[in-house]
Design brief:
The protein is an alpha/beta fold. The chain contains 11 helices and 9 strands.
């Protein structure tokens, strides 16, 4: 199976589930095949439809996160009757994956180790939070191969800023874990042996946030990109009013006054 899927109850007694998606082609450093893209999209769709998934954790098997596109898929597309159209379709499908994970209302956490290259770099950019092992090596090699980091380009700019994304692109960028932390590509760096305990701590932190409020906040932040604040005043007020008068707002306020944890949080 190109992706291993494991679901578990949210830790700390919080309601809902955490879904772990593990890229599972360790012999190829988890290179991204079309089958893997389809499996990830299907898993995300299933998690969204379930309604009780609080967090999705994305990581790779065998000590690596993802080595980018599978060259066998690219070669097969190149040999198709219309090779250009086939290559565009393969590339677009990966783009759909990035857009889907960037746009989901479910909180996402990526755990990256070893090789984080090309499309794997892009997947790290679309996660809400990223924990890196100290072995992580980020590479953006496309331009050094005569290629373009096409589908991940918008997410590189969003995560790193235009100037840094451009610098990495024109130098065939390489970053180790500490350099990635300095750029805020990742949010924490730890030794491999500490990653599981750090993931558990992060899950507990994220579960303190109300799921519908998280989804609404992510959606509003996404709409805020490239828009003047004045254009969002009425919409933001409506989103806030829905939240404060809804069940989560009522429960959160009651919990604060009562000096207790709200019902969605670890107890």
């Amino acid at each position: 199976m190109p992706v291993l899927i494991h679901s578990e109850p949210a830790p700390g007694g919080a309601p809902g589930r955490v879904v772990h998606l593990t890229l599972n082609r360790p012999e190829l450093r988890n290179a991204m095949s079309l089958a893997m893209v389809d499996a990830l999209l299907a898993a995300l769709s299933e998690a969204e439809a379930a309604g009780d998934v609080r967090i999705i954790v994305l990581r790779g098997a065998g000590g690596h996160f993802c080595a980018g596109a599978d060259l066998k898929d690219m070669a097969a597309a190149r040999l198709a009757v219309d090779g250009r159209a086939a290559m565009a379709a393969v590339n677009a499908r990966f783009g759909e994956l990035c857009v889907a994970f960037a746009g989901t209302g479910i909180a996402t956490l990526a755990v990256v180790e070893g090789t984080v290259m090309g499309g794997g770099f892009g997947l790290a950019c679309v996660a809400d939070a990223v924990i890196a092992g100290d072995s992580a090596q980020f590479r953006l090699p496309e331009t050094s191969l005569g290629l373009v980091p096409a589908q991940i380009a918008p997410f590189l700019v969003e995560r790193l800023g235009y100037a840094e994304a451009k610098h990495l692109a024109v130098t065939g960028g390489k970053l180790d874990a500490r350099e990635a932390l300095a750029l805020r590509l990742v949010h924490e760096v730890h030794a491999a042996g500490a990653l599981d305990s750090v993931v558990q701590r992060r899950l507990l932190e994220m579960l303190r946030c109300a799921p519908q409020a998280v989804a609404a906040t992510k959606a509003l932040l996404a709409r805020s990109r490239g828009q003047a604040p004045a254009s969002l005043v009425a919409e933001a007020a409506s989103v806030f009013a829905d939240a404060v008068t809804g069940p989560e707002g009522s429960e959160g306020t009651a919990a604060f006054v009562g000096k207790r944890s709200p019902g969605w949080a670890p107890q």
